[in-house]
Amino acid sequence: MSYFTEFTTYFAYMLLIVVGHFRDFWGRASGRTRWKTLLPSGAGRAKLAPLFKSWENFYTRRLYDRIIDVFNRPICSSPSAWITVQSRATDPATKELEKTGKTQRCLNLGSYNYLGFADDWMATCGPPVLRTVDDWPISCGSSRSDLGTTALHRTLEERVAAFVGKEDAVVFNMGYGTNSTTVPALVGKGDLVVSDELNHASIVNGCRASGALIRSFKHNDAEALEAVLREAVSMGAPRTRRPWKKILVMVEGIYSMEGEICNLKAIAAVAKRYKAYLYLDEAHSIGALGANGRGACEHCGVDPKDVDILMGTFTKSFGGMGGYVAASKAVVDHLRVACPGILNHDAMSPVMCAQVLRATEIIMGDGTDLGASKIQDLKDNSNYFRKELVNAGLHVYGDYDSPIIPVLLYNPTKIAAFSRECLKRDLAVVVVGFPATTLVKSRARFCVSAGHTRADLEDAVAKIKEVAALIKIQYKITPFG
């Protein structure tokens, strides 16, 4: 980022904040505002403390709400390569977004449909999954530890363990809940978690709930990890200087906001050298990386035995929902009796188990080369799209072979401009800003699919180049965009 870009980005935020505070002041003084938290309590109003004070939701009201139309756009179709987006308009009285009844057909560059199962579901997964409805309930109505475990759950766990190269596995009904409930079951008081600074919020919240001490290391940097581990091992716990009960290193296969692939070989070597356990989140990498879709271990040439805990989700490459943890039988047996995600959450739907089983069969090869073809198509599409955006002069994050391709926008005004201009050209894109990113690193995050044709991507690249020139985000060519 050039100094000019950095200055104008901070200046834009400062201007928005100053104007927002002025409007808050005017609303309190005049009593003319649609935000009730700004008005003094009076007759007819409940005598309760406000759930949110004006300063607590200032960012939402004065910054986020200005561009709320570019987020949470509803769709009314399968999340395939092309989707149907419902149009919305602002109500003049309430300023809330309302559906207009109109729809728009757009190229989908935002969904995690990595292997394109949403495009050919009826041909690839539909028949065996639909037959499951005749034999199994939609919901188990219970947690896994009570009456929620079926033969399909056991079969899926065996298949996942074999696929990723571990002794055993356990499946959960939610990807986010997999991390946030598994980590507290693995570490606690007296333990140390060493976490990559850009790890997903589910990992962060799981670490916070565990009671373990948390230290972060510079993103994807094995040398920084070694420095943290060396100090932790030599110095021990704060105050007492006693050795840690255990140390858990946590990284991701593909970082969802960066599109970067984990430097797994070097990180695994460091963790092994310092006798720390290694936990790998493969939410975005399982099914998408490696010649056979077996994730970051296969892509990076790391033996799965060198990664103690493999976690992943079924919401991306498998076209389903839920997550899994694969590890040694001893670890998995412990999770079955100690993890809140198993003890308290509803069991994964048997129908969803059937979907993931069928998708896994295809990826592993069920007598056809369909899975291998999908994996290769995803790789080719991702690398083509990334290369074209780089050649267009955009600041592009991430690594080749990653299906996540972030493009830096920086300035908050360009978040909305980019999304709106793309929508005008029938492109459905995801834009991300603070607090999901740092303040000055707002971005558009493209997710490429095996379901995209080369013609789809060529058309998208041409339109993105047009938008990039219009709103001036070609920062690789000129510091002024």
Automatic annotation (TrEMBL):
GO annotations of cellular component type: membrane; serine palmitoyltransferase complex
A GO molecular-function descriptor: serine C-palmitoyltransferase activity
Pfam families registered for this protein in UniProt: Aminotran_1_2 (PF00155)
Location of the Aminotransferase class I/classII large domain: 106-464
Enzyme class, UniProt record, top EC level: transferase
Family: Belongs to the class-II pyridoxal-phosphate-dependent aminotransferase family.
Record's protein name: serine C-palmitoyltransferase
Organism the protein comes from: Aureococcus anophagefferens
